[in-house]
Amino acid sequence: MPWLPSTTATLARFSSPTILTYILSLAYVELDPLVSKADDPKMVEDPGVLEVVRQLHKACTEAGFFYVKGHGIPETLLKEVRDETRRFFELPYEEKAKIKLTPAAGYRGYQKIGENITKGVRDMQEAIDFYREVTKGMYGDLGKTIEGSNQWPQNPPTFKALMKEYISLCTDLARKIMRGIALALGGAPDEFEGQRAGDPFWVMRLIGYPGASPVNGTDVLKNDTGIGCGAHTDYGLLTLLNQDDGINALQVRNLSGEWISAPPVPGSFVCNIGDMLKIYSNGLYESTIHRVINNNSKYRVSVVYFYETNFDTAVEPLDTHKTRFNGNKKFERAIYGEHLIGKVLKNFIDL
């Protein structure tokens, strides 16, 4: 069974027996010792840090998805970011369309319901995409597709400042978690800095999932599949998910091929591994397939931050005793930017 904290105080964090039942299948990691020591030159000697590293390794090998608390980002800010996102999605379409996603905008901006697709099927969601800004010629031909600046809405008026603060905090948190994961893989704390991810690309996607609609007394979703977001893996290193409280919609496919729920735990992030970290780990860590099905009658907001490698990094398995133990190199080199753009160009219709 995946690691689960056993103390009464820690279990009290979970707000209901239902949530506790679900996260018996996913690990829960208290990050505070790692977050507080991540930049300490002696972090590898700290017992608290080493315990977090052990838990991260167990979570990454057994599920690729895990909850984190003790991350240092206030719960009030997590909620404020979701509420601000909801305020934008509540605006009339004409207002939202002022920042409509187009190829000319570097694939940044707003998409109405049904414009995003996963494996050719329309997703039941609306969204805004933001990327780290890419100036002209910054990555040569590799970056041309996503050159441009983010489209920030004028309404709500506090939107841009709030989201930029949040992105900055998530970037720093993800960097610290990756220092722990570097140790978990048998490397140095800075394994994912420098040429690998010392100048990390990032993506943030704000998503709104309409609730189920009652038809003849039965809840029916407004598309043929009932899928808010189809089954997929994430593209980069590490994902930080901030999801609405009280709505159970995220599903993770476990190692047995079963779909299990990952319900929201107030004040926590759900973290998961991306395709690039799977390669770096030589397959020791899995980039886990997941999907979203919102059967609740309520509209669901999800704020997803993706921490990536350097855009132009060539990703290949690390050479550590743990990755070598997992066998010969199982993956060819992958250029992160090529991988990202290949996905982006297949994600939208009618553009």
From TrEMBL:
Catalysed reactions listed for this entry: L-homoarginine + 2-oxoglutarate + O2 = 6-hydroxy-L-homoarginine + succinate + CO2
Keyword Cytoplasm among record annotations: yes
InterPro entries: DIOX_N, IPNS-like_FE2OG_OXY, IPNS-like_sf, Iron_ascorbate_oxido_reductase, Oxoglu/Fe-dep_dioxygenase_dom
Start and end residues of each Fe2OG dioxygenase domain: 200-309
GO MF annotation terms: 2-oxoglutarate-dependent dioxygenase activity; metal ion binding
Protein keywords: Cytoplasm, Dioxygenase, Iron, Metal-binding, Oxidoreductase
Gene3D superfamilies named in the record: B-lactam Antibiotic, Isopenicillin N Synthase, Chain (2.60.120.330)
Domain of life of the native organism: Eukaryota
Pfam families: 2OG-FeII_Oxy (PF03171), DIOX_N (PF14226)
Major subcellular location class: cytoplasm
Subcellular localization: Cytoplasm, Cytosol
One GO CC annotation: cytosol
Recorded family membership: Belongs to the iron/ascorbate-dependent oxidoreductase family.
PANTHER family associated with the record: 2-OXOGLUTARATE (2OG) AND FE(II)-DEPENDENT OXYGENASE SUPERFAMILY PROTEIN-RELATED (PTHR47990)
Protein name: Fe2OG dioxygenase domain-containing protein
Organism: Psophocarpus tetragonolobus
